[in-house]
Design goal:
By secondary structure, the chain is mainly α. It has 6 helices and no strands. The radius of gyration is 18 Å and the shape is flat.
């Protein structure tokens, strides 16, 4: 799999190794953006634009990893639901319900998705989304380098 396919295509399958590499890269990019914006070295609107721009590759990696687990991309919407529940204002509910809806359920969804995507192996053979996951080629050497 090419680097371009890894970040921008929603087709195919992605193994755990490349999923975790993306998660680390994504975390480092967000950390850098928020650090620069927090220190005034980067405009907040520019940082927000970069975060939005990172949503496409993050979604592509997530969907391909779901495909490796033989699940459709619509399962990725669980992450959106978890984020919306966590960001919501649940003050109209009693204290216990606020905690349940605003913290427990989103945490349960995220932990479940974390185990599903990052901990469990993909299907070993072909599934409805294609052949088994191929590793991402990060550095492609020219043939002259091997001679």
């Amino acid at each position: 799999m090419t680097l371009q396919h890894w970040c921008f295509s929603f087709r195919g399958r992605l193994g755990r190794r490349d999923f975790w590499i993306w998660q680390l890269c994504w975390l480092l990019m967000l950390l850098l953006l928020f650090t620069l914006a927090g220190n005034g070295l980067l405009d907040t609107q520019t940082a927000a634009f970069c975060v939005v721009a990172l949503l496409w590759p993050a979604s592509a990696v997530l969907v391909k990893r779901l495909h490796d687990r033989n699940k459709g991309g619509q399962w990725a919407l669980l992450m959106v639901v978890a984020w919306m529940l966590m960001a919501g204002n649940w003050s109209m509910l009693p204290n216990e319900a606020q905690w349940l809806v605003g913290r427990f359920i989103p945490t349960l969804i995220m932990v479940g998705m974390g185990i599903e995507l990052g901990g469990l192996a993909g299907t070993a053979s072909d599934n409805r989304f294609g052949k088994p996951a191929q590793p991402v080629v990060f550095l492609r050497r020219r043939m002259a380098d091997y001679q």
